[in-house]
């Protein structure tokens, strides 16, 4: 690997930081990864610090499997040995069924065994610079020197905020409430309809069953988060009453096939956010600092794109660092690549989520402007000729603007009064009534 820099520090040992660090270490780089969490314990629960979504359900897309296969197939082997399952669609990976905790644990263990990689527990306070260049980071008051700092510190990252600001973005209007269960041995699962497990879109809320590893799964309800009555879903009995009111979901919590293994986990409000890393003249905000993963782009979890977008970025960054002797040229090129390949997904989410929140608040499809992507995709149900256009978007093989040729036809379909078929289930008001009237047993 070419390169004119010596020490690399990666801030953050989440999926992005670990993946990037392992890939660089395997190319002969010495990398120090710093995270405020000490990592998975030898026994017992891993109470991960600093990542609010750690226990929330994740579904990993095919791109995540492809990234692991390309860079670290041993991690994929370990995941499969731990009970994770790769779901194939034809000859391609479509998803990885795995709890986030298991995913990170195996990445972390692999990183810990990597000879050129050092894992350090500590809180990074800020980036240290001298004469306008990064010289390292301050960790719990102590300086760790580096001439390349990779900021993989995620959505809650603060240590680069003074340099990069908050970026652009908006509330994504999707709040998760979920509970984890395990299927007893030999008990059949409930109904499924997608590579995730079961995905049910209702006119004013959503419901999903996420399949994970080792017969574990999560049942989740998703709402806009702006009506306080939903908050009662945090009680186990209230949550189960609400889930029981949705026929296809109710099947998943029958006592003969559902052993709850945790209490209900309510989520908070989330943002679609994008933060570039060049100044107005097109140079890195701080030479020697490169941000990657969620610290560049976060998107609504409804589409399960977060880790896929993060690892796509990580792969591109590693490739550019391999190609470029000049780290600042790599940083500038990486930012431009992110603007072309990552930002369009952010913009797509902002628009699609804005329109979805409108509809989840009781409004009909707006026909006086271009349809958002989810409705163009939905229209393929009415006109199967659209399937060839929407397919590559769904699998993230084509960017959101690939839907443009289908938009006019999709709008015609909606203008004729067609609407997607909704599964049997209560309206939002009926579900809120269940939530409001079910007693919460302490
Ligand atoms: C509710 C929810 C559900 C989601 N579901 C999915 C899904 O189904 N599929 C999917 O692909 N994605 C999903 N995502 C997105 C996914 O979780 C993120 O894309 C992913 O966490 C990004 O990884 P990362 O390594 O960039 O950041 P993170 O996972 O946030 O890791 C950042 C790390 O940096 C550390 N850190 C931060 N600041 C400091 C500091 N100053 N000093 C030391 N350490 C620091 C943190 O402790 C953390 O370990 C979901 C997100 C949410 C919120």
Folded structure, characterized:
- The protein has three domains: 8-169 and 271-341, FAD/NAD(P)-binding domain (3-Layer(bba) Sandwich), CATH 3.50.50; 175-269 and 427-437, D-Amino Acid Oxidase, Chain A, domain 2 (2-Layer Sandwich); 366-418, no CATH class.
- The protein is globular, with a radius of gyration of 22 Å.
- Helices cover 34% and strands 21% of the residues.
- The strands form five sheets. Strands 12, 13, 14, 15, 16 and 17 form a six-stranded antiparallel β-sheet that branches.
- The longest helix is centred in the C-terminal third of the chain and has 18 residues, at 306-323.
- It is an alpha+beta fold and 442 residues long.
- It has helices spanning 15-25, 62-71, 73-81, 100-113, 161-164, 236-244, 247-250, 306-323, 327-341, 343-360, 373-379, 387-394, 404-415, 428-437; strands spanning 8-11, 31-35, 60-61, 85-89, 92-97, 117-121, 124-130, 133-139, 142-145, 148-151, 168-171, 175-182, 197-201, 206-211, 216-223, 259-260, 265-266, 271-274, 289-291, 297-298.
- The structure holds flavin-adenine dinucleotide.
- The site of flavin-adenine dinucleotide has 39 residues, from helix 1, strand 2 and helix 8.
């Amino acid at each position: 690997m070419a390169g004119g820099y010596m020490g690399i520090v990666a801030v953050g040992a989440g999926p992005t930081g670990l993946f990037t660090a392992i890939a660089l270490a395997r190319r002969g780089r010495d990398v120090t990864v710093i995270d405020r969490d000490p990592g998975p314990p030898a026994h017992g629960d891993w109470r991960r610090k600093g990542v609010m979504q750690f226990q929330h359900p994740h579904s990993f897309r095919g791109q995540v499997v492809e990234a692991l296969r390309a860079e670290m197939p041993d991690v994929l082997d370990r995941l499969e040995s731990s009970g994770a399952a790769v779901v194939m669609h034809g000859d391609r990976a479509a998803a990885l069924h795995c709890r986030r905790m298991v995913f990170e644990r195996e990445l972390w263990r692999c990183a810990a065994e990597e000879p050129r990689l050092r894992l350090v527990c500590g809180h990074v306070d800020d980036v240290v610079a001298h004469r306008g260049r990064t010289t390292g980071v301050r960790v719990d008051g102590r300086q760790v020197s580096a001439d390349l700092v990779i900021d993989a510190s995620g959505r809650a990252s603060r240590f680069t905020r003074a340099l990069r600001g908050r970026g652009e973005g908006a509330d994504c209007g999707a709040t998760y409430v979920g509970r984890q269960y395990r299927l007893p041995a030999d008990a059949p699962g409930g109904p499924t309809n997608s590579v995730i497990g079961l995905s049910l879109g209702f006119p004013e809320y959503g419901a999903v069953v996420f399949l994970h590893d080792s017969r574990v799964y999560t049942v989740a309800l998703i709402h806009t988060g702006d009506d306080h009555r939903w908050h009662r879903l945090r009680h186990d009995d209230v949550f189960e009453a609400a889930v029981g009111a949705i026929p296809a979901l109710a099947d998943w919590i029958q006592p003969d096939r559902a052993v709850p293994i945790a209490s209900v986990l309510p989520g908070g409000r989330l943002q679609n956010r994008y933060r570039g890393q060049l100044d107005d003249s097109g140079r890195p905000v701080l030479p020697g600092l490169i941000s990657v993963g969620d610290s560049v782009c976060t998107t609504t979890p409804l589409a399960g794109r977060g880790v896929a977008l993060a690892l796509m970025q990580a792969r591109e960054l590693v490739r550019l660092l391999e190609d470029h002797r000049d780290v600042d040229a790599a940083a500038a090129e990486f930012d431009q690549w992110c603007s072309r390949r990552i930002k369009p997904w952010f913009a797509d989410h902002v628009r699609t989520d804005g329109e979805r929140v409108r509809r989840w608040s009781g409004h009909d499809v707006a026909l006086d402007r271009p349809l958002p992507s989810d409705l163009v995709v939905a229209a393929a149900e009415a006109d199967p000729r659209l399937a060839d256009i929407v397919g590559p978007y769904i699998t993230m093989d084509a960017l959101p603007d690939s839907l443009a040729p289908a938009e006019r036809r999709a709008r015609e379909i909606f203008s004729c009064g067609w609407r997607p078929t909704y599964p049997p289930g209560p309206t939002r008001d009926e579900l809120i009534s269940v939530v409001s009237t079910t007693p919460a047993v302490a």
